[in-house]
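note to self: the first set is below, dont mix up w the second
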Amino acid sequence: MNRMMMNRRYFLQVASLTLLPVVAGCTAPAVAPTQDGQEQTDAPASDQVQLLMANYGAIPDAWVDLGKVFSEENPGINVVFEGVQATSWADYF
């Protein structure tokens, strides 16, 4: 069995290419200047995130209650449940 040894240079190249998108995703978004040249400092009021939870069939009442509790504890996230009526898993997906 012929195994290729991974040298340090190759490992660092692969690691940097793998971690670069992860690190870039963790940075803060750029602040766009307003029309008068000042930087916008506060986020718009419509920064509400909607979390959609789908289920095959009807939504249990306990899930709705859990979604309400989660939304109360995380004010920026609105949980929405959607029951998907389908005849098979292929239709569901």
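second set (the one i keep forgetting abt)
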Amino acid sequence: MQIYLVRHPTPQVEMGTCYGQTDLALAESFEQELAMVKNKLNHLEAAKIYSSPLQRCAHLAQQFTHFGEVCYDPRIMELNFGDWEMKKWSDIPKGAIDVWAEEHVMKAPPNGESFHALHLRAKALLSEITAENTETAVMFTHAGVIRALLADALSLPLIHAFKFQVAYASVTKIIVEETVTQVAYVNH
């Protein structure tokens, strides 16, 4: 099974803002980024489409309905930053960020979720998708989800997931065959 993990296009948000599950609109560059994603996926003849329900993913996924209905699933939403959502990173007390950064895999921001929790929910959906034996699936999702699934595919500790750069409108491909998962490419 081939699984394409597509990060959403650039959101309309001020640089330096902490956002995760805030439902942001897309920046003016959407049409240009859409063309890039279409070019990267134009070789696909059929695929099952999954999307985060957040509009920055959903709007992109809706451009691929020629493959069929989009399955929206909150398990592939970005990390919930809780009380930090939509605050400037520079306005969050440095001590709080430092504590979280050292233990971000298991520690959640206040009223948010840990990266481990994100990993578990994304992995649960991936397990369901692979059990369906669909030949090709495309997930329109977020950088955190892509990093978590890459770490899982490579059997890396989650602490190393943030070493992956995941650009806006990029495509990452993993291949799942029975008990073997391979990474075909990252950040294409």
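remember for set 2: DSSP finds five helices and six strands in the chain.
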